């Protein structure tokens, strides 16, 4: 493989005539289950079969450009990289009797944090964790003519019912089958209004469906759901992985959401955000929490640095302290070459050679590389 | 015009030595540049007595003007010489060895000027340089012109063209004679146009003391180019050399900037104030490096635009130094493209010191070592923008 | 004079940009006329070195390289030219982005075809490289003649006239750009142009039709061809 590349990259005109350019193949690993991945699989691609992809990521989780690429390549291939592998190993060897551990993935925009999170999610899914997955926090907080109502149950907090209902759908899609298997039920009655109550002992699936159908109560439903899940996890009935992408958006200064009385709400005032923040607390065990802070999630406010202390501020730090920070770096040389081999194998990158240039231009950030190679 | 061509045709066919005709017949003036076409160096100046009855009023006025000019120039020259001696005495230098350079320095010292334009500052130059040269009397008292081509209106210029044409015909005859004897013109002797350019329009105007139009200058260039391209043109090397000017050497580019060393012994080159539009960059390139890049403290993320990034990559890729040098640049002013261009120039200029001379030559041909002096073109009055004209309305 | 006329008629034609006063000049260049155009591609320079043509350039100064030209293999002069033609209001960044999106779209369409195709011969004949398709499309749309209005006896006749390669390429590219401007508002430029390029590379589509229409018109105006020379 290397010999080919050497010939092709540094060949003079004469030699090139003899050796026609051989399209390289990316190095892959055959292990489909992320639980089996180990250090031998580093910088190799592994494919997720379509069924799993649709069951985990159908309603969000993979970045949009990546999804478009998977339709072109007709497969979803993730690269096994160090940060994700470290966290998976840690999860495997964790003591679940202790309170839930927190991991924080951080790095520059486009360094591969979301896809590392996707890798971890796949592991959790195949290890029968319940996925409490928020695909991308700013979706909750961006301007989109969403209805924002002041919450009837919680004082001073605002509800975004439609988004909550959407998230519940996402949760159900990911975890529906697992919840059926585990047969978890509610531990108490929940009274929505004079006529609507959910009695104790209803399955969580039904509970969630109720929340989806009655969007008015979706935010409260989310909150109660979280409490139920925490209780079940603490009682050793199930394991849960809380995965939040764009965590630092919880600590932005403002949002574009406006209530009916034309009041702009801050993220801290949104009830769903408070639910998310409580999910990150360590008052439960038998699970883990993985957060991703991304400069993009700061929505054009904090541009100076990609470090978590800058993005989530003192308040956020104190909220999640203690945690294990994991840096997601740029691609190493082996990973970089492998990625380009993969693109050439799929006939996406049409011009072989020029790797030095791509290295310089994209500073080996995978998202930048994807963007650059799209037109080449 | 037709009469003149007929005249010339007749002259040529009659094979008369035109110049000899004029020299014997008419007095020559030493002043001015009437001697352009002259082949005979040593002509005796005969002062013919002016016969008063034959001169017309216009002729008299013309002669008066000529004499006035001559006297004026004489006077000015005399004043200049005297002044020069005075200046030499003032400066305490021997007047005999007082050159023009010394005069310039003396004037700069005695009359310091804060004026921006060098042409506005005080100077002392020989009057032939200061006052534009005028043509002397072009015809005698009887009104008969001295120069053959006087009636073209630009005699000196058309004499040049005529010479070129005659030489071309002579060369053709020469080549024919060679070929009759089955000899091919010698290829080794053939003149090349590399390394020299033709005199510019201003130079030719100075030479002929006549104002030329662009069309005429173009004719001149075409004609002499034609002469040069003739395989036997080596016969008239001196004639062609009269109208040639050596090309500007690229010495400044070949001499690279000085290399300095850090405390650790790393070699580096700093280039300050690299220009591009209104951006200015200071670029430092460290030679044994690993490919680190820092622009105003940030990496390549300083530029969002791909084009800007490619521009910075260009010189490094061209010289294969992408991972071999470290670059530190500070840039200010201008826009994205200007900043990128300034840094590109800085990198190229610094890399000259770390690369073979052959590669430096290649960089020069690639256009990396040339300062880009293009600036935004100004808007002109009567037009909407720099080039765009106002909408043409019929009424 | 007659001699001079005789010799200058067939003399070399010099392209000259006269350095007139910048204020009201028709043509104006920062560089004097003898400056050479930069040669920045490594392969061309290697060829020059081999043939020894580099000696000719030793004393000629060269203009500065343009901001959109690099020696990188990903840079193509045809693509650069096309981006320049697509430019509106000097927004080079946007024009380039849009063209790159078009290339991406071309790749997607062609790859879909490629992956679907089972016959190995046909498979190898499918071109996926968008730059190759662009070049092929442009060559397929280059007209051989154009119509110029010539005034004869009070009225203007459209006379077919041969054109240079440069001009012909210009027309081809310009037709593509105009075609892009006529598109439906709901369709993105990238999708639209991708289809156009692929069709043109197969000798179909609107732009090729335009070229053929022009050729037809030239054919029909054949009778006026002699109007070119008085």
TrEMBL record, chain A:
Entry keyword Electron transport: no
Assigned keywords, A-Z: Mitochondrion, Ribonucleoprotein, Ribosomal protein, Transit peptide
Subcellular location(s) of the protein: Mitochondrion
GO cellular component annotations of the record: mitochondrial small ribosomal subunit
Pfam families tied to this protein: DAP3
Any GO molecular function: structural constituent of ribosome
GO biological process: apoptotic process
Main subcellular localisation: mitochondrion
UniProt similarity note: Belongs to the mitochondrion-specific ribosomal protein mS29 family.
Protein name: Small ribosomal subunit protein mS29
Protein species of origin: Cinara cedri
Taxonomy of the source species: Eukaryota, Metazoa, Ecdysozoa, Arthropoda, Hexapoda
From TrEMBL, chain B:
Main location: mitochondrion
Region entry Disordered, spans: 376-395
Recorded coiled-coil stretches: none
Recorded superkingdom: Eukaryota
Protein name: Small ribosomal subunit protein uS9m
Organism: Cinara cedri
One GO cellular component term: mitochondrial small ribosomal subunit
A family per Pfam: Ribosomal_S9
Similarity-based family: Belongs to the universal ribosomal protein uS9 family.
BP terms from Gene Ontology: translation
Keywords: Mitochondrion, Ribonucleoprotein, Ribosomal protein, Transit peptide
Annotated localization: Mitochondrion
GO MF annotation, one: RNA binding
Automatic annotation (TrEMBL), chain C:
Classification via PANTHER family: RIBOSOMAL PROTEIN S7
Keywords per UniProt: Ribonucleoprotein, Ribosomal protein
Cited InterPro entries: Ribosomal_uS7, Ribosomal_uS7_dom, Ribosomal_uS7_dom_sf
GO biological-process terms attached to the record: translation
Family: Belongs to the universal ribosomal protein uS7 family.
Protein name: Ribosomal protein S7 domain
GO cellular component: ribonucleoprotein complex; ribosome
Domain Small ribosomal subunit protein uS7, chain residue ranges per copy: 71-222
Family annotation (SUPFAM superfamilies): Ribosomal protein S7
Highest taxon in the source lineage: Eukaryota
Source organism per UniProt: Cinara cedri
UniProt keyword Ribonucleoprotein, yes or no: yes
Entry-linked Gene3D superfamilies: Ribosomal protein S7 domain
């Amino acid at each position: 493989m290397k010999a080919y590349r050497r010939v092709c990259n540094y060949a003079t005109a004469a030699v090139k005539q003899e050796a026609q350019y051989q399209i390289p193949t990316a190095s892959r690993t055959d292990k489909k289950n992320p639980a089996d991945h180990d250090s031998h699989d580093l910088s190799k691609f592994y494919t997720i079969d379509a069924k799993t992809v649709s069951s985990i990521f159908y309603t969000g989780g993979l970045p949009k450009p990546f999804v478009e690429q998977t339709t072109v390549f007709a497969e979803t291939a993730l690269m096994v990289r160090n940060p994700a592998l470290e966290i998976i190993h840690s999860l495997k060897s964790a003591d679940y009797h202790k309170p839930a551990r927190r991991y924080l993935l951080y790095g520059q925009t486009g360094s591969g944090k979301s896809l590392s999170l996707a890798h971890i999610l796949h592991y959790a899914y195949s290890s029968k964790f319940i996925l409490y997955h928020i695909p991308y926090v700013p979706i909750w907080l961006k301007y989109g003519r969403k209805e924002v109502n002041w919450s009837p149950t919680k004082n001073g907090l605002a509800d975004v019912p439609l988004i909550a209902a959407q998230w519940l759908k996402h949760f159900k899609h990911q975890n529906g089958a697992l919840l059926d298997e585990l047969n978890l039920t509610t531990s108490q009655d929940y009274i929505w209004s004079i006529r609507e109550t959910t009695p104790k002992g209803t399955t969580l699936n039904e509970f969630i469906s109720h929340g989806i159908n009655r969007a008015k109560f979706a935010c409260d439903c989310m909150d109660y759901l979280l409490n139920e899940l925490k209780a079940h996890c603490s009682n050793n009935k199930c394991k849960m992985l809380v995965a939040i992408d764009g965590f630092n958006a919880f600590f932005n200064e403002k949002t574009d959401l406006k209530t009916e009385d034309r009041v702009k709400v801050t993220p801290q005032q949104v009830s769903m955000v408070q639910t998310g923040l409580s999910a990150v607390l360590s008052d439960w065990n038998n699970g883990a929490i993985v957060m991703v802070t991304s400069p993009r999630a700061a929505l054009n406010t904090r541009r100076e640095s990609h470090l978590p202390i800058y993005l989530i501020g003192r308040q956020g730090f104190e909220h999640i302290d203690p945690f294990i920070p994991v840096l997601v770096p740029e691609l190493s040389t082996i990973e970089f070459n492998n990625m380009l081999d993969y693109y050439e194998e799929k006939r996406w990158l049409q011009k072989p050679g020029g790797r030095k240039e791509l290295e310089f231009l994209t500073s080996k950030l995978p998202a930048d590389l994807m963007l650059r190679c799209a037109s080449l | 015009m037709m009469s003149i061509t007929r005249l010339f045709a007749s002259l040529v066919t009659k094979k008369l030595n035109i110049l000899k005709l004029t020299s014997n017949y008419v007095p020559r003036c030493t002043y001015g540049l009437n001697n352009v076409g002259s082949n005979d160096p040593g002509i005796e100046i005969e002062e013919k007595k002016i016969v008063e009855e034959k001169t017309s009023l216009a002729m008299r006025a013309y002669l008066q003007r000529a004499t006035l000019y001559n006297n004026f120039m004489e006077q000015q020259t005399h004043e200049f010489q005297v002044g020069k001696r005075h200046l030499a005495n003032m400066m305490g230098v021997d007047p005999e060895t007082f050159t023009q350079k010394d005069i310039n320095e003396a004037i700069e010292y005695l009359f310091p000027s804060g004026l921006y334009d060098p042409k506005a500052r005080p100077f002392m130059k020989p009057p032939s340089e200061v006052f534009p040269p005028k043509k002397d009397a072009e015809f005698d008292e009887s009104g008969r012109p001295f120069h053959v081509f006087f009636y073209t209106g630009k005699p000196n210029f058309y004499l040049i063209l005529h010479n070129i044409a005659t030489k071309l015909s002579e060369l053709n005859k020469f080549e024919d004679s060679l070929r009759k004897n089955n000899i091919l013109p010698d290829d080794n002797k053939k003149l090349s146009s590399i390394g020299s350019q033709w005199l510019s329009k201003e130079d030719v105007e100075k030479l002929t003391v006549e104002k030329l139009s662009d069309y005429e200058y173009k004719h001149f260039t075409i004609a002499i180019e034609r002469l040069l391209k003739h395989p036997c043109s080596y016969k008239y090397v001196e004639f062609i050399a009269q109208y040639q000017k050596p090309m500007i050497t690229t010495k400044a580019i070949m001499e690279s900037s000085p290399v300095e060393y850090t405390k650790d012994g790393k070699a580096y080159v700093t280039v300050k104030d690299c220009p591009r539009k209104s951006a200015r960059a200071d670029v430092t390139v460290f030679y044994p490096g690993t490919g680190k890049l820092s622009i105003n403290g940030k990496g390549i993320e300083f530029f969002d635009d791909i084009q800007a990034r490619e521009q910075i990559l260009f010189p490094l890729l061209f010289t294969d130094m992408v991972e071999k040098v470290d670059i530190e640049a500070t840039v200010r002013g201008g826009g994205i493209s200007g900043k990128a261009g300034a840094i590109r120039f800085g990198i190229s200029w610094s890399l000259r010191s770390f690369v073979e001379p052959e590669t430096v030559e290649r960089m020069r041909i690639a256009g990396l070592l040339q300062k880009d002096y293009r600036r935004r073109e100004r808007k002109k009055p009567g037009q909407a923008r720099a080039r765009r004209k106002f909408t043409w309305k019929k009424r | 004079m007659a001699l001079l006329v005789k010799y200058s008629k067939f003399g070399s034609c010099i392209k000259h940009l006269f350095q007139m006063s910048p204020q009201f000049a028709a043509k104006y260049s920062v560089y004097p006329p003898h400056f050479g155009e930069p040669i920045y591609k490594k392969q061309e320079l290697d060829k020059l070195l081999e043939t020894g043509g580099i000696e000719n350039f030793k004393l000629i100064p060269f203009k500065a390289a343009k901001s959109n030209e690099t020696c990188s293999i990903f840079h193509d002069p045809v693509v650069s030219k096309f981006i320049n033609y697509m430019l509106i209001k000097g927004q080079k960044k946007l024009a380039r982005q849009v063209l790159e999106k078009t290339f991406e779209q071309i790749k997607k369409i062609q790859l879909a075809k490629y992956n679907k195709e089972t016959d190995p011969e046909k498979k190898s004949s499918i071109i996926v490289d968008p730059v190759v398709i662009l070049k092929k499309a442009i060559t397929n749309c280059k007209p051989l003649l154009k119509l110029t209005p010539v005034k004869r006896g009070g009225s203007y006749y459209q006379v077919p006239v041969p054109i240079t390669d440069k001009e012909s390429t210009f027309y081809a590219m310009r037709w593509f750009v105009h075609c892009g401007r006529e598109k439906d508002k709901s369709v993105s430029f990238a999708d639209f142009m991708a289809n156009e390029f692929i069709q043109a590379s197969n000798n179909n589509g609107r732009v090729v039709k335009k070229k053929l229409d022009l050729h037809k018109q030239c054919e029909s105006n054949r009778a006026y061809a002699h109007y070119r020379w008085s």
